[in-house]
Design goal:
59 residues; alpha+beta; two-stranded antiparallel ribbon; globular
Length: 59
């Protein structure tokens, strides 16, 4: 099982890592659009690296 958790507490779990990542993007775009718009490319890259590490760890 792969799990990702947003800083707000929203959690996605599935056997398929792609589905988990897609669901997390859906959540981020719909629930945190203002935050995403205010992030720089570097900030977004760091956030994505953290989520990638979380997925690899199976957290």
């Amino acid at each position: 099982m792969k799990t990702l958790t947003c800083n707000c507490g929203f959690t996605v779990t599935d056997d398929n890592a792609y589905k988990v990542e897609a669901a997390m993007w859906h959540h981020a775009i719909h629930d945190h659009a203002d935050m995403l718009k205010s992030m720089t490319v570097d900030m977004l890259e760091q956030w994505l690296k953290g989520k990638d590490e979380q997925l690899k760890a199976g957290a």
